[in-house]
């Protein structure tokens, strides 16, 4: 026990500091994006992103509570303060950097096209005049918009990627474009009905963890935790669990 005499303010300051140290941080994630984030039947949120952020939290002493949050409006939740952190397979790009701050990249991805096995489509450019399903406002949406034009009626936008894939199964769209990790996860159970098409013009994407713009203290802790789990093998073992070697 310390014998140091404290002035009136000091204990209350310490309590405040402690409070903010131990405060629970609310993490928003659109948990319909396996294997990155998904909800189990008993409503717990699991996935690669979840394990990565939990491991970061352990290193940096962050108390985290994950809340399933729809993709549309997800970014606004940082601004409003309803969420402190977002991890949702979010691709870092300049437009998003204007409205939120990102961690160092934690995952590399690329867009991938999925079509029915019987489809005659064999490359991206052949999707002209075809119906493409995407999740609204994702980088898949961007890629489709680049080919067909943002206002094209042939782009069918869904609030979740699983809904776009469902529409593909129902043949309501000719193709879906989404992140490779998610398409490959879908393919694992649907190899006999679908095939994937990659395109050399699709750019590398990097996922980042997002915080409210200007929250440098939190992003610093997240980056330190990320560096620590990369250094000690934790990142690699989580990666292996979800994506193999
Ligand atoms: N990486 C893509 C993007 O940032 C798609 C992310 C969608 N994530 C999700 N959890 N639904 O636009």
- Could you estimate the helical fraction of the residues in percent? 25-40%
| Small molecules held by this entry | arginine
Distance between the termini: 50 Å
Roughly what is the average pLDDT, rounded to an integer?
Answer: 93
The main pleated sheet reads as: 5 strands, mixed
- Count of domains: 2
Supply the helix-strand structural class. alpha/beta
Task: Just give the CATH class of the largest domain.
Answer: Alpha Beta
- CATH H-level superfamily title of the largest domain: Periplasmic binding protein-like II
Classify the beta-strand content into a percent band: 15-25%
Number of strands: 15
Helix and strand sequence: HEEEEHEHEHEEEEHEHEHEEEHH
Low-confidence stretches: 1-12
Key traits:
single chain; 245 residues; alpha/beta; D-Maltodextrin-Binding Protein, domain 2; 2 domains; 5-stranded mixed β-sheet; 36% helix; disordered N terminus; binds arginine
């Amino acid at each position: 026990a310390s014998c140091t005499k404290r002035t009136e303010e000091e204990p209350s300051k310490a309590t405040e500091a402690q409070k903010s140290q131990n405060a629970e941080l609310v993490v928003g994630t659109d948990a319909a994006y396996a294997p990155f984030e998904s909800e189990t039947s008993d409503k717990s949120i699991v996935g690669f992103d979840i394990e990565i952020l939990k491991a970061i939290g352990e290193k940096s002493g962050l108390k985290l509570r994950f809340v399933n949050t729809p993709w549309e409006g997800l970014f606004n939740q940082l601004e409003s303060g309803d969420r402190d952190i977002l991890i949702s397979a979010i691709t870092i790009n300049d437009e998003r950097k204007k409205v939120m701050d990102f961690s160092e990249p934690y995952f590399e991805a690329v867009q991938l096209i999925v079509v029915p096995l019987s489809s005659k489509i064999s490359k991206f450019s052949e999707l002209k005049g075809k119906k493409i399903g995407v999740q609204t406002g994702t980088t898949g949406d961007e890629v489709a918009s680049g080919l067909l034009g943002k206002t094209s009626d042939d782009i069918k936008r869904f609030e979740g990627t699983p809904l776009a894939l469902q529409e593909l199964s129902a043949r309501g769209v000719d193709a879906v474009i989404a992140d490779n990790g998610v398409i490959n996860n879908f393919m694992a159970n649907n190899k006999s009905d679908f095939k994937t098409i990659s395109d050399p013009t699709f750019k590398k994407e990097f996922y980042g963890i997002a915080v409210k713009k200007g929250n440098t203290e939190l992003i610093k802790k997240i980056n330190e935790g990320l560096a620590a789990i990369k250094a000690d093998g934790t990142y690699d073992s989580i990666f292996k669990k979800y994506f193999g070697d």
